[in-house]
Amino acid sequence: MAGIYKVVVTFLGSGCTRTATAPIITSSPPETVTAEVDTEWFAENATITVTVTPPGVYEYRLDDGPWQESNIFTGVRTLRNFDESGIHTVFARDVKACRERFDTVPIIDYPKYFTPNGDGFHDYWNISTLSGYPNAKIYIFDRFGKLLKQISTTSLGWDGTFNGSPMLADDYWFVVKYTESGINKEFKAHFSLKR
């Protein structure tokens, strides 16, 4: 039980006593951990805020990073690796009991390049972090604005061809039409096709 406790030690030979007090606090592990992205989709660096119940003294960790006292992670890179889904794991633990819980949160971003050379690695370009949003539409254009392909976020993606012919190694532009928090949005950027 929490409170201030007193210990009295008596030396039997002399009868002298010493007294010490110490505060005792209770500690409980987190019951729920909720992670939310505070920045818009496709932000260069995202911010994640973690909420834990019940209130207490906790420390937090993002993926395999170090533990920290703050429940806010800033400068989170969206995709750490081409093959990763953009899903980050946030952990919270009670500093006394050391038991932890976690939540996962997607950071929406797009691959900056792909290599459609048939080796089984990066052969298709798509925004896999949007796979949970099947209504999102992606349009791919060449540098002159010619529409090359419309793809679904749930498909393999673009294979780097137009009418069956391989496109040149170059930069290609895309437009994503999607809904974020009930608001229709559009994002434009470019990526590289490398051969």
How would you describe this structure to a colleague?
The protein has strands spanning 3-10, 17-24, 32-37, 45-53, 58-62, 72-77, 87-94, 100-106, 113-114, 137-141, 147-152, 161-162, 165-166, 170-180, 183-193. It is mainly beta and 195 residues long. The strands form 5 sheets. A 5-stranded mixed sheet has the order 9-15-14-10-11, with no helix packed on it. The chain is rod-shaped, with a radius of gyration of 26 Å. The model has no long low-confidence stretch (mean pLDDT 89).
Secondary-structure topology with pairs:
Blueprint: E1 3-10, E2 17-24, E3 32-37, E4 45-53, E5 58-62, E6 72-77, E7 87-94, E8 100-106, E9 113-114, E10 137-141, E11 147-152, E12 161-162, E13 165-166, E14 170-180, E15 183-193
Parallel strand pairs: 9-15
Antiparallel strand pairs: 1-2, 3-4, 4-6, 5-7, 7-8, 10-11, 10-14, 12-13, 14-15
